[in-house]
Amino acid sequence: MIAGKAEKTPAAVSSALTKLKTAGYRTVLGFNEPNKADQANLTVAQVIELWPSLTADPQVRVGSAATSADAKAWFEEYMSQIEAKSLRVDFVAVHWYGWNAGSCDSAKELESYLTWAEKFKKPIWITEFGCMNQSNPSADVVKNFYAAAIEMFGRHSSVERYAWYPWNTNNELVMSGNLTALGTAFGQAAATR
User: Fold this and answer.
1) Which residues in 142-162 are b (16+ Cβ under 10 Å) and which e?
2) Distance between CA atoms of residues 171 and 142, nearest Å
3) DSSP 65
4) DSSP 82-113
5) What does the pLDDT look like over 149-180, one tens digit per residue?
6) How far is 60 from 183, CA to CA, in rounded Å?
7) How much is the pTM?
8) Per-residue CA distances from 44 to 26, 89, 148 (Å)
9) Left (φ > 0), alpha (ψ -120 to 50) or beta: where does 42 sit?
């Protein structure tokens, strides 16, 4: 990933891309949550200015900037500019978290977000998803949500990759060196299409 926290100039982005390619990477994720002050903290205009440096090598597949789910307007403006300027985005990267009580009781809210992202007509990588705060009152709620999400992904051929966010309560895949029930479910799920 070229996260965008340190890469704020075309030269810095080009340098980071060269390092990733030299290390053998052929796919790169674009800026991480540019809509958030504590993440990349970039405007749409800044990202568009940096984008040609990120996509300069046609041999490297590039994912879109990945905004938080509460930034649909930011992302829509970004994709509008990408299209207007004929810039390249090979796949759309999205983040989704259940935050409020009930948002992880099923995969309906996540599916609604995926349906929105499908309008960009690109493969989708869910580079972060999970249940946070009040949405995960128990390990069973989270495990059931995860199972429902994986089943739902099967109905969305646009979903090419997904990455679970295991670093908070009830989302853990491993505890004390052993797989949790969620970790077992994760290990048994299809990794990619």
Assistant:
1) bbbbbebbbebbeeeebbbbb
2) 7
3) P
4) HHHTT---SBEEEEEEE-STTTTSSSHHHHHH
5) 999 999 999 999 999 999 888 999 999 999 99
6) 31
7) 0.93
8) 25, 14, 34
9) beta
Q: How far apart are CA 183 and CA 189, in angstroms?
A: 10
* Two tokens, residue 166: 């295991």
Q: Which amino acid is at 67?
A: T
DSSP codes of every residue in 153-172: HTT-TTEEEEEE--SSTT--
- Cα 40 to Cα 47: distance, rounded to the nearest angstrom: 10
Alpha helices in 23-102 (DSSP H): 44-54, 72-84
Residues present in the chain in total: 193
Separation of alpha carbons 25 and 48, rounded Å: 23
Q: Express each pLDDT in 81-106 by its tens digit.
A: 999 999 999 999 999 999 999 999 99
